[in-house]
């Protein structure tokens, strides 16, 4: 299925190339009413420093109406909020999305169970970017 979880990080294969994945993720954020607070282009920064790396960008996003109650209840969660998705391309030109799992964030910051739903939508956000599963309807 192209999904793996390790040490609280979920890794999802993208069905698209790097640039298309980033553009589609930005579109999904906008459609979902989420704010893109920042986009860090690590590859461009590396290039400016005279270094090379595979295409890698970090998108930082959220919704203050969802995130603020989490941070009020569990102040240390502000270390990991707003939510982030790391989009990177490997040496075989496969594109990957990585993010902290809601379960990891909940455990790490003792987020009350009733507020975990405020950060759990990250999986639904990246779902349309995954490769189509045979027999499943196209989501995006």
Question: Outline, from the CA principal axes?
Answer: globular
**What is the CATH-assigned architecture?**
2-Layer Sandwich
Helix and strand run: EEHEHEHEEHH
How many beta strands in the DSSP annotation?
6
Number of separate helices: 5
- What distance separates the N and C termini? 16 Å
> What is the overall pLDDT average?
91
Q: In percent terms, what proportion of residues is strand?
A: 25-35%
Please describe what this structure looks like.
- A 6-stranded antiparallel β-sheet has the order 1-2-6-5-4-3.
- The protein has a single domain, classed as TT1751-like domain (TATA-Binding Protein, 2-Layer Sandwich), CATH 3.30.310.70.
- The chain is α+β, with helices and mostly antiparallel strands.
- The C terminus is likely disordered.
- The protein starts with a strand and ends in a 14-residue tail after the last helix.
Descriptors for this entry?
140 residues; six-stranded antiparallel sheet; TATA-Binding Protein; alpha+beta; 31% helix
SSE diagram, text form:
Elements: E1 3-6, E2 9-13, H1 18-31, E3 35-41, H2 42-48, E4 56-62, H3 64-73, E5 83-89, E6 95-100, H4 102-109, H5 122-126
Antiparallel strand pairs: 1-2, 2-6, 3-4, 4-5, 5-6
């Amino acid at each position: 299925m192209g999904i793996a979880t390790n040490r609280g990080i979920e890794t999802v294969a993208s069905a698209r190339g790097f640039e298309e994945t980033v553009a589609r993720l930005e579109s999904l954020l906008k459609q979902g009413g989420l704010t893109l607070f920042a986009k860090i282009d690590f590859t461009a920064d590396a290039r400016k420093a005279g270094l090379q790396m595979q295409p890698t960008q970090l998108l930082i996003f959220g919704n203050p109406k969802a995130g603020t109650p989490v941070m009020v209840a569990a102040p240390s969660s502000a270390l990991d909020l707003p939510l982030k998705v790391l989009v990177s391309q490997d040496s075989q030109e496969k594109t990957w999305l990585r993010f902290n799992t809601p379960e990891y964030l909940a455990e790490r910051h003792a987020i009350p169970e009733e507020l975990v739903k405020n950060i759990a939508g990250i999986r639904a956000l990246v779902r349309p970017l995954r490769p189509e599963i045979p027999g499943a309807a196209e989501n995006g």
